[in-house]
Structures are given as C-alpha cells and as structure tokens.
From TrEMBL:
UniProt protein name: ABC transporter ATP-binding protein
Species: Actinoplanes flavus
Keywords in alphabetical order: ATP-binding, Nucleotide-binding, Transport
Keyword field contains Nucleotide-binding: yes
Family: Belongs to the ABC transporter superfamily.
All residue ranges annotated as the ABC transporter domain in the record: 3-233
GO molecular function: ATP binding
Amino acid sequence: MTVAVEELTVRYGRRVVLNGLDLALDTGVHGLLGPNGAGKTTLMRVLATVAPPNGGGVRLLGSAITGEKELRAVRRQLGYLPQTFGFYPRFTVREFVEYFAWLKEMPAARIPVAVDRALERVGLLDRADDRMKTLSGGMQRRAGIAQAIVNDPRLLLLDEPTAGLDPEQRVAFRSLLRELGVDACVLVSTHLVEDVAVACERVSLVDGGRLVFSGTPAQLAAAGGDGDAGDSAIERGYTAVLRAARA
Ligand SMILES: Nc1ncnc2c1ncn2[C@@H]1O[C@H](COP(=O)(O)OP(=O)(O)OP(=O)(O)O)[C@@H](O)[C@H]1O
C-alpha cells in the first residue's frame, strides 16, 4: 500500500478533527469527498508530512515516518498541492516550479527538462517566463499543479485542484489525472462529484473526521435512491451515505 493510515487522530485544541480514521490507498486515482469542515484538508496535510498526527499510525510508501531520514526520503517522492499556497510574486512561472524541484532534492541536471515537461502538462509552457503575479487565478493553480508533479511523485496529493479552472481546463486536467494515476497513487479532494465520477477509480467520503464510505464511484452512485437530494446518481449516493452515517 502506498498509503496506510490506521486510527488517525488529529486535534486542534479540544476539537477532534480526525477521529480514528482508517484509509488504505494504492496506485490509481482516488477521490476524497466530504462536506466543509469534514477533515479533508487536515488529512491531506498529515499525508503531505506537513501536520503531525496526535494519534494512530501513518505509513507512506511503505515506511513509517519515524525520523528525519524517512521524512526526506518520502518528501522526494511526494507531490502536494495545498488548498491555498503562496509564492514569490516576482518569480517567473519557471522559477516557481524550479524552486520546488530543488526543494524536493531533484538532481540538478534533470530539473530543466522536468520543469518544462510539468509546465507542458498543465498547458503553461507558453507562460513559463511570465511572472507568477501576472497569471490569472486558474493559471496560478495550474502552476501549483506543475510544482506538485515536477518530480514524478509516487504519491500525489491534490487539495481542490480544479477550483477556479475553466471547463476546458477541467477536462484537460481530468485526462492528466488518469495519466498520472497509471504509475502513482493520486488523492484528489474536491467538491465536484462529477470530477470523481469521471476521473477517479475509487472514492472515499469523510464526514466528521471519519471515513464513512470507500468504494468505486459506481458503488457510491448505487447507494442513492430517488428520494435523495442531488442532480446526478452520484450526488444522490453522496447524500444517502451522509444521511446513513449521521443516523
Ligand atoms: N489551524 C486550525 N486551527 C483550528 N481548527 C482548525 C484548523 N484547521 C482546521 N481546523 C478545523 O478542523 C476542521 C476540519 O477542517 P478541514 O480544513 O480539514 O476541512 P475540509 O474537509 O478540508 O473542509 P473544506 O471542504 O471546507 O475545505 C474544521 O472544523 C476546521 O475549523
């Protein structure tokens, strides 16, 4: 398993945000759904080794993160697009992605080709020499996706990557996701259930800091019925699973 999480607990002060969550993920594209405040970003941050858990076990790429050595080894093979991310506004797009390649300790000789390839994959190669601050919001997010994939990560964590993308870019991004999921374990959090239906092989649903569903998009869709709120089968499944979890 690329990701093996057992009984994961995260607290902020007295508030328990992840409450004994179990999750196992292997190669492929996995969707992460859940209402606002369910704990998706918190889970992503733990998997990205940004936030330490308060309890439970986390194994990434086959190893428990027990010290600096494991941490560095995992970070070299990790890609992470945070929900919100900062950048030096005067960096060019190419410099922004190069900087992350360097942080991930990529061999210097490989960086120029890898950066151009990542920018090409998100459709930003023609803006490579523009400054980050001159890009539109959706383009900045695509630059964020480029930095996440520049090192060909084995574990790729994308927190709401399609927020702000126009329909054409969303379609292009879904096919990029499917491509990435052939070799890597990709976890994508989103509120767009159609992204999950089209681009993900498996989907996990989190509510109140717990995993309440794990299965294929078709299984989630099948959980819903005519009486459930939603405009598509998978939205009705989402509503039905949440209702059952809260009952
Ligand atoms: N730094 C923090 N300090 C205190 N509470 C926090 C902090 N970060 C998150 N929380 C709380 O943790 C809970 C889960 O937040 P999280 O951002 O993980 O949810 P989410 O599922 O990603 O939500 P959304 O869909 O709105 O992005 C929320 O109740 C939130 O208020």
